[in-house]
Every structure is written in C-alpha cells, then in structure tokens.
Protein 1
Amino acid sequence: MGKQSLDNLGVSAFCESMAMMLHSSIQVDEAIGLLQQQSGKEKGGVLSEGLRVMKEQVDEGFGLYDAMEKSGIFPSYALNMVKTGERSGHLEDILFRLSRYYADQKVISEKLKNAVTYPAAMLVLIVAVLLAMLTLVLPAFTDVYDNLTGSIGASAYRYITWAYAFCWIALAVMVLLSAALLMGLFLWRSGKRETVEKVLNRIPLCRSILENMGMFRFTSALTTFISAGEMQDEAVTSSLPMTDCKAVEEKLHRCVRRMEEGHSIAQAAYDEDLFEPVYGRMLLAGERSGSMENVLGRLTDLLEENISSLVDRLVGIVDPLLSGVLMVTVGLSLLSVMLPLIGMMNSIG
C-alpha cells in the first residue's frame, strides 16, 4: 500500500507556513522543527510523519526539496516548484504562490465534487421513487381495478399499461446513467483518466471545463517559473506537463514549435489561440510593457473564475433536467392510473 499524500488544503497550509517563517528569516531546518512541534498532537497523521522524515533529512544537510521528496507526502507539482525555487533563490515567493495555487485547487475540486455528488444523489432518489411506483403504487391500483367488474370498460386498462411503461423506461434510463457515472468514477480513480476524458470531451460544456482547468494549471505553473527567473522557453517546457489535459497539451506543443522559430510565448499563444482573443491581447500587451508576470497572474485568476462559472452552469443544467424527468414520469404514471378511476366515477355518477 502506497504512502498517503497530503490533500490540497494540507499542502497549501504547509507552503504558507514555510513561506511566512522564511520571510521572518527563520532557517529551513528551524522552520520544519517548529512545524513538527505544532503538529505533535497529531502523532501518526500524514503531516506529522512527513515532518518527522523531513526533519531528519534537513538535519543531515539536505535541502527543502530533498526533504519534501523523501517524505513522500507532497505532489510532484509542489516538488518541482520548490526545486525551482531553491535553484533560483526565489523559494519564499514560490512557496507563497504554491499556497495560493493549492488553496484554489481545493475550491475547484470541491465545486467539481459537488457537481458530481448532487446529480448522483438525484439519480438515487429518482431510482428509489420509480421502484416505489413499480412495486407499491401501481400494483395497488392494479389490484383495485382487477377486483372491479363491470364498472369500467376493458379498454381503460391500457392506461395502467402505459403507467408501467413510463416507469420502466424512466427506470432503465436512470439505471444506465447511474451505471455510467459509477463506471466513470471508477475509471478516473483507477488511472484510466484519458478514457473518461474522451467521453467528456464530446459534451461541449464538460470539454470547456477540462480545458479551462488545464489552462489554469499551466498559467499558474508558468507564472511561478517566470517569477523564479526561468527563460520563457524553459518555463513553458517545464509547465507543459502540469496541464494534465491532452487538448491543452497539443496547443502548447504547437506554441513550443513556434517559440523554437523565434516567437515569444505571448505571440505564439496568440497565434495558436491558446487563450481567448481578449486574454491573448492582454498577454501581448503585458509582454510589451514588461509586466508579463502580473498579466499571467491575472489570467490565472480569470481562469479560476471561469471554471467556477462553468461548473455552476453545469449543475444548473443537470439539476432541473433530472428534477423534470422525475416529475414528468411520476406525473404521467399517476395520471394514467387515475384515468380509469375518473371514468368509473363518471359512470357511477
């Protein structure tokens, strides 16, 4: 069994604490020692065990990157950023940026989790209601009508058949959707993410979310590398693996080829439509004015806001759609079983 890793919030808190102590002129070994003391009450926890290993490493003369890597609790992105920070002498700034990045990742992941959890709960509710209709409600009406003789015409019984048909069709669709959702989650967590992405990419809104998330990770990494003093081509090459999105990676590879021909990152991004046109012009203006880092930071914030907006829009579409399916199916089924009763009452009246 692999060693457990810190979650996004834990990485953010660690990076912020380290950055603040380094800003106060506290050495790395002393900072880790202080964090170890603070987490002493959580013996056996992920961070507590990781800090113990890190303290041993820094006491032996290793740097922060080596200590973090040895602990095995930090994601590769954070390790790469810290390594760059130590090499460039901008460790404090990069730790602050990492803290913000993982805090943002926490917010985005929570939104995505809610976007999946709510439809899943709705699917369970719809399946439960339909099963109740098929096993309790409709059979009860059927028994009542079977015991009635001469009160209604035989043709009226087809309404009951329609009610069963509505419920069975809706139940089959909901079960298939539930199975697809469970299969998608299983494949995603088992490392077969590309298979799930191929399906999601066929849905325009889902494709936009995935691409914006890839761009968010890329611009965040690019901002960090450039602020650490990396050359543009090296910064882009180092940031490319962070995207975790095939569509974005393909655009970035085209940008890299343009940069190899002598174009700047801003011009290459604009020519290849890496960003939306308005963002591309912002990047060009930032490069010409010498404020590339600030513009990239602003683009990262805008991409995060756009992701939140797209996820909210997705939930706003799925929620009424599933609720509508439930109401229409139950409504039509109840109407179907009530029609014979209405006919019977009219014949009695």
Note: The domain at 104-349 is CATH 1.20.81.30 (Receptor-associated Protein).
Protein 2
Amino acid sequence: MNTILLLNGLVGGVIFGAIYALIGCSLNVLCGVLRVVNFAHGEFIIAGSFLSYVLLTLFGLHPILSLPIVTIAFFLIGFGLYYLLIPRLAKSDEPETSSFLLMFGVSLMMIAAMMWIFEADIRAVEFSFDPINVSLLVIQDAYGEGRDGRVIVPTARLVALGINALLIIVLTYFLYRTLTGKAIRAAIMNREAIQIVGINIHSLSASAFGLAAALAGITGVVLAFVVPSIDPNGGQDISLIGFIIIVLGGLGHPVGALIAGILFGLVEQIATVFLPQAAAQMLGFIILITVIFVRPQGLMGRMTLR
C-alpha cells in the first residue's frame, strides 16, 4: 500500500468532509425548524459559487473578500423567500410533501436562471495563492525505493479547510450559547412547545431560513476553492449529498450532521485509494443503508414515537 496515497486520501477526506458537514448542517437547520425538504439547497450553493465568480470577474474582488457580501445577500434572500413561500405550506394536508414539490420547482427555476445567465458552460473562479501548494509532510523512503514522498496540498484547499473550521466553531457557538441559537434548537425538538413561551415562530423560522441560505452561499464560495470549476447543473448532486449527511447524522441534530459529513468525506476519499472511483462512491451509500437498518434515527438522532 502506498503510504503517500493513503495520507493524501486522509487529508482530502478531512477537506471534503468539512464541506459536506457544512452542507449537512445548514440543510439540517432548515429541515429541523421548518420541516421543509429543501431540494433546492444545492442550487443555493452553486449560486453562491457563481456570485463569487461574478464579483471576481466584474469587480476583481477576491473570493475571501466576497464572503461578507455573499453572506448578507443570501441571508436576505432566504429571509424573504420564507415569507414568500413557506407560510402557505402550513395550509397543506401534507406540508412535507408539498415543500418537496415546491422546492423542487425552485430548484428547476434556479437551474434555468443560472443557465440563462451563464449558459451551460462550466466556469472557473480564477484566483491563486502564494505559494500554490504546501508540503505538509515528508516521509523518507515512502515508496520503498530510496525515494522520499511528500504530502502536497493546494493552498486553496487548506484555506477552504480553515474557513470551514472557523464556520463550524462559530455555528456551534451560535447554536449552543446564544439565545437565538437555543431557540432554533428548541424549535427543532418541539416546534409547537416553544410558541407557548412567547417565541414568534415565524420570525424564528425566517431567521433559520436566512441562516441556512447564508451558510449555503458561503459553502458555494468555499467550494470554488476546492473544485476546479462550477457547473450550473451540479446543484442536485450536492443536495443529494446533503440529504445523505442529515440521514447519517440524524434529522434535526446539527452536531450529528458535522460528524456524519466528516465521516462520509473520509470514507469517500480513502476508498478511492483502494477502489475504483465508482466503487468508492458506492461505498458511501452502503454505509448509509447500513446506518438506516441498524440505527434508523441516525448516528446522533433520537428515536421518535408516533
């Protein structure tokens, strides 16, 4: 076994796992508080990537500097979309099914809009760091042939990992130490009970939708650091990963989403060292099916009696 390939797989797994964790956590907040199956979450992430592309192309703004603009813009969009779309779902007999169909329609509209604006071509967010690559580790005689091996990681990916780590710390603090964050967690546990103590569920839900949208936009910017190009049609694959993460971690459990995202990223990237790429992707779904059979509520979720 090639030690260098394995170590590169571990590093790549942590980097992609942190992105998956952020995707799952933001989607979990939305599903937990609003009971909305947001199939357009991946399109929000791709839209965040394209917004950073526009800010860089038109105004020369580095993606790191565009993060505050993307965050504010997507929070306001998410906040407004809640009042435009979500309250009407409460009148439905099956709000979760209706939300799935509604957000699937939003997903198709966003794909069409991005293809209309940017056409069907993939775009690259062209920026660079100095140095381009960083050597994290040197292993003597790594190949058994008297040659040293190096674990080399692009600087952009390390920056993406740092941003993700900071976001996860801030998000964890927000959810567990601030009054609004505790209210969001309480709404995930029991949406009806928190209204008894006087919490305005509509304002809280709109804030949760805005938070999820803002996190999606930030994830889109960070994703541009990791992947070479962005595709207007790539959002549905990202949404699928997000739903896998929240099922693995437990619906309504943000910390579970963080753990599941890291785990899924590590398994996916390390498996590519030993298996063909298609088989490596299949392994992630095998783990998902196994968790569903063994622990249907997810790794950190609680069993709900109905």
Note: The chain has eleven helices and two strands.
